[in-house]
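I'll show a sample.
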Amino acid sequence: MESISPNELALELLNHCIRGSGWPEELAAALVDEALDEDEEYARRASRALFSVVVEKLADLFEPRLCNVYAQLFAGVIERCLPELKASELVSRYERVRCVRRVDFEPKNVFVLSRVTLGADVAVTSIVLDAARKRWPKAKLWFVGPKKSWELFEASVDVDWVPMAYGRSGLLRDRIAIYYELKNALEAPGALVLDPDSRLTQLGLLPVCDEDRHFVFESRSYGGDGMATLPELTRDWLHAVAGVEDAEPWLHPKYEFNFGSQPLTTLSLGVGENPAKRVPDPFEEQLVALLADKAPLVMVDAGAPESEEESRAIQALERSGHGQERCGLHQGPFASFAAMIAASRLYVGYDSAGQHVAAALGIPLISIFGGAVNDRMRARWRPHSSGPAWVLNADEADFSELISQIDHLLTEGHLHEITP
């Protein structure tokens, strides 16, 4: 298989998984061996293929039967990385810790594991944190995850942080190697581990604590064939596990903005490393121009420094025809932009973290939702908000139709008074 690229290996492996036909052991072994290669750049390409083509696609389908397929496949991957962890034992343990069951002890420490992606940490993890602090107010509550996610909650007085770096674009060996650090971090007296399908545990597979203390929310299967949103399913799981019915999404970053009476519209052009979510040019520059025509101030998030998103944001601003008096570029951590969303009267963006922040805060939002692999994925990631929310299907309209739909919402729809 030396002449086959990592992406080709990954696609062939994915097809076997989806068909449910089993896969040749040498196929999976070849991809994993390449991901563990001593040549770091080669290993990086293979690692990226394994996760983005196989693991993430299996998860995005939200197909309950594929959870078992993933567990069988990735338990083998883990054993090849850490031979002391046997695949058969990992699968057996996983089948037990994913069972929905009530917590029957009073923990002294409650560890809530990050989903690693910002949007999921608002839409899912924050609800788990809220339920934990309501159900076990005397326990020490910990958020376990990377700094960028922690910054969404760092001003909270009742949650502490266990730093746990995880590179979504990192090498396979590095993603698995955090097992030891994570296991050590969770070895606290009377610990309870709430795992909302965390990437830190490879979706619940890594045995980071005693199984009777490990509760996994298998969000990829929970809800079956239904079309409920992830926040709705998370609440339902928490009711079953913790007896809490009123858990809500929330965030508490250290940043704060006050624009007074000036109506602010916030805009994110981020696509969460998934280019399929993006609408082709000239949509973004026309969107900036339209929003600036309707609101006195539009702030566009730049994303990470020197990123593709930053380049697109700058280009859209430059080509919109509006000067700095109407449009601005937000540069800084996402938690800062989240605080800016909280101060805005309207949020607009693709299916990414910003829409879940707006939904959690009840800020009126327009989501341009594209790139969904099926209707269930679209339903699961739909923003669940107490405020006005419009989700436009970018897979069924071209850029001009989307601009017309947004224009209609701003001029004739319910948003007319929001952006005078």
Residues 109-220+228-242 form one domain.
